[in-house]
UniProtKB/TrEMBL annotation:
Record region (Disordered): 307-326
Pfam families: MMR_HSR1, YchF-GTPase_C
Compositionally biased intervals (Low complexity): 307-322
Residues that, per the record, bind ATP: N85, V86, G87, K88, S89, T90, V295
Protein name per Swiss-Prot or TrEMBL: Obg-like ATPase 1
Localization annotation: Cytoplasm
Protein family according to the UniProt entry: Belongs to the TRAFAC class OBG-HflX-like GTPase superfamily. OBG GTPase family. YchF/OLA1 subfamily.
Gene Ontology CC terms, in alphabetical order: cytoplasm
Main location: cytoplasm
Molecular function (Gene Ontology), one example: ATP binding
Keywords: ATP-binding, Cytoplasm, Hydrolase, Metal-binding, Nucleotide-binding
Length: 479
């Protein structure tokens, strides 16, 4: 078995997103029968009244993007957060299958945040492409951001300063990377490996940063003229209500943070006005978060077997034994128990294994993973982490499928059909007429769009339709 030495940066070119499952990017059966295509060419023809369109656009993969340009971002960003030297950049490189971030055995190796585009694995794409005889597959993608390590006191400017907290503020979700691997050669800023202490340290710094932010906001709103006075001076009732919502939200959140409770844990207790009033603050502990337990290579199989059980289960040892795996290490068990108390999800990864896999041929990968006792990479490592991140962000996928391509699109839960169409192009939203829609399972079962139509499975959905996970859609629009 070839073991790969630690990669240094700049040894490989940035490569396209989609490589976590690059086989899915290769063309599938193109077929010769246009009539058999889903979304036949007629859908692309313009008529005087309207056009029917399926995915004419090409995916715009980016390898480096301007950080913090929220208005320009097309993809949701997830920040990799944690203490220095816990493996964030190694994981980031593996996620992006590129060595664009410098990963090395010294704390504060990363200073500027690196941003990479990562394809979201989805086995349904292959099936759809087969049915649609699509020339290619385009998965949907997320952006990951490799953020500098935080240390105790970061909220007061310790370490490399609390500007890194503002890097986290720009993200939509957080993956907290926790070191569970023992290796005397790899420096730990606190001198020993203790994942729960590390989780508390980072959690506390984020809570302190939020508390300071909330306090500043409270002081500012105290300096504002009282709402009643504004109202009597002609201020709108809506503005007054919003101001009241903000005051009460700030009071409640300050109380939770005082007790070191992450805001995300109690977010649903806030009214929708209170939630809206807090949005501009970008509170760090309000962001969806999951833990990535970074384990040693030999621990990966056992850790994954333990952590893939439900976060609320009280013990994983029995579950692991039932799976025929060994018990997880005490570190992994401690991470699982801590996360369970918070109701957070944990995914086992080995940044080291992932970075080594990226250097191997498919046969070598299989051999290496088997030697580690890992049979199914979908349930451990990066694929599991990407999927878990997607779920943590409460995202949904719908598909478009035609001879040119089968493609996955990301929307937030609860998105209506016109806004879902707008993810493809703003014209589709502006001129939305209706969406021809069939569920993924029904389409696969029917074997072709024609058969699905014959069976009455293709519905014509209007502007109020809330797009469901796995919908396959064709948008009819007129601009
Ligand atoms: N699972 C693992 N097992 C063994 N070594 C690992 C593992 N994960 C990461 N490492 C090693 O830990 C060291 C630190 O990794 P890396 O530079 O990715 O940390 P980082 O969290 O990005 O640090 P910083 O915050 O300083 O940027 C590297 O030498 C890397 O090879
Ligand atoms: Mg780093």
């Amino acid at each position: 078995m070839r073991r790969v030495e630690k990669r240094c940066s700049c040894t490989r070119q940035a490569i396209t997103a989609g490589n976590p499952f690059s086989s899915a990017m290769t063309p599938v059966n193109t077929g010769n029968d246009p009539a058999a295509f889903i979304g036949v060419h007629g859908f692309l023809r313009s008529t005087s009244r309207h056009r029917l369109v399926h995915t004419p656009l090409r995916v715009a993969h980016r390898h480096r993007v301007a950080f913090g340009c929220r208005g320009l971002r097309s993809k949701l960003q997830t920040g990799l957060v944690g203490l220095p030297n816990v493996g964030k950049s190694t994981l980031f490189n593996a996620l992006c299958e590129q060595a664009q971030a410098q990963a090395a055995n010294f704390p504060f190796c990363t200073v500027e945040p690196n941003v990479g585009v990562v394809a979201v694995p989805d086995a349904r794409l292959d099936e759809l492409a087969r049915v649609g005889r699509s020339a290619r597959i385009v998965p949907t993608a997320l952006e990951f951001v490799d953020i500098a390590g935080l240390v105790a006191g970061a909220s007061r400017g310790e370490g490399l300063g609390n500007q890194f907290l503002s890097n986290i503020r720009q993200c939509d979700a957080v993956v907290h990377v926790v070191r569970c691997f023992q290796d005397d050669q790899i420096v730990h800023v606190a001198g020993s490996v203790d994942p729960v202490r590390d989780m508390e340290t980072i959690g506390l710094e984020l809570a302190l940063a939020d508390a300071a932010q909330v306090e500043r906001r409270r002081q500012r709103s105290a300096r504002r003229p009282a709402a009643a006075a504004v109202a009597s001076a002609g201020g709108s009732a809506g503005a007054r209500l919003m101001e009241e919502a903000e005051r009460s939200a700030l009071d409640r959140v300050a109380e939770w943070l005082d007790a070191a409770v992450p805001v995300r844990q109690r977010w649903s207790e806030l009214s929708s006005e209170e939630q809206r009033s807090l949005q501009p603050l970008g509170l760090l502990t309000a962001k969806p978060m999951l833990y990535a337990a970074n384990v040693a290579d030999v621990e990966l199989a056992d850790a994954a077997a333990a952590l893939n059980t439900s976060p609320s289960s009280s013990s994983t040892t029995a579950a692991a034994a039932a799976e025929g795996m060994g018990a997880p290490s005490p570190q992994v068990e401690a991470v699982r128990a801590y996360a369970a108390r918070e109701g957070a999800r944990v995914v086992a990864v080995s940044a080291q294994v992932e970075s080594e896999l990226a250097e191997l041929t498919p046969d070598e990968r299989r051999e290496y993973l088997e030697s580690l006792g890992v049979c199914d990479m979908d349930t451990v490592g990066l694929r599991a982490l990407i999927r878990a991140t997607y779920d943590t962000l409460a995202l949904r996928t719908y598909f478009t499928c035609g001879p040119e391509e089968t493609r996955a699109w990301t929307i937030r839960r609860g998105t209506r059909a016109p806004q879902a169409a707008g993810v493809i192009h703003s014209d589709f939203e502006r001129g939305f007429i209706r969406a021809e829609t069939v569920g993924y399972a029904q389409l696969i079962d029917a074997g072709s769009l024609a058969t699905a139509r014959e069976r009455g499975l293709v519905r014509s959905e209007g502007k109020e339709y809330v797009v469901q996970e796995g919908d396959v859609m064709l948008f009819r629009f007129n601009v």
